[in-house]
């Protein structure tokens, strides 16, 4: 922990015009051993986390706040990590050379500073008349780790003026045994399911909130457990802003015939 705090202290010195706060959290309860069929020694998986956070007053009427939580993995190969951090950490879609704590801390700090710098220039001619706080917050969380399937949740919210803010909730799944990112087709034969019928049954009374119920279909934004496959639809994706983020949980029993045999075996479905 002293070493982690030292790394954060160095990062704090990099901040210009702000009083940066950074912290780390250990998630020791998520350590497991996984083994690739082609490797004799098991790969030890573990995850820690780090947080960068700061605020800045850019005018008498506008204060900005920013925070980002990132996971720090051990036991996950680089191509998978490239995908897990894409759209979350990369500037200009450039992958990092590695994903060590120090590299992630440096990149996250630079991204935060860029947010303050860009916002100050972008909003220069659009300052609110009354004091307001605009913000951007995001978090990368270990959602579940069972049967060798790692599910990472990405959440965030923010406000930049106007009638209301925004929020998002996304998921990505990693097969730790195969060391690869998963898509829905790895779990189920998507062509063998009548998705509209099954999803409308699952959404229930919320059907009335949907823009076009007849076009509702599956999404690559999903997570699963031993009983359900849940699709998560973002704001405005299938319904109005007032409906918020809409999760639709499909019982695995409803699509059992279409599930991949190896997936069923992994999670214990007969």
UniProtKB/TrEMBL annotation:
Keywords, comma-separated and alphabetical: Signal
Which PROSITE patterns does the UniProt record give?
A: PROKAR_LIPOPROTEIN
Note the superkingdom of the native organism.
Bacteria
Domain named DUF3298: residues: 209-252
What residue intervals traverse the membrane? none
| One Pfam family per UniProt | DUF3298
Write the signal peptide boundaries: 1-24
Q: What is this protein called?
A: DUF3298 domain-containing protein
- Organism for this UniProt entry: Marnyiella aurantia
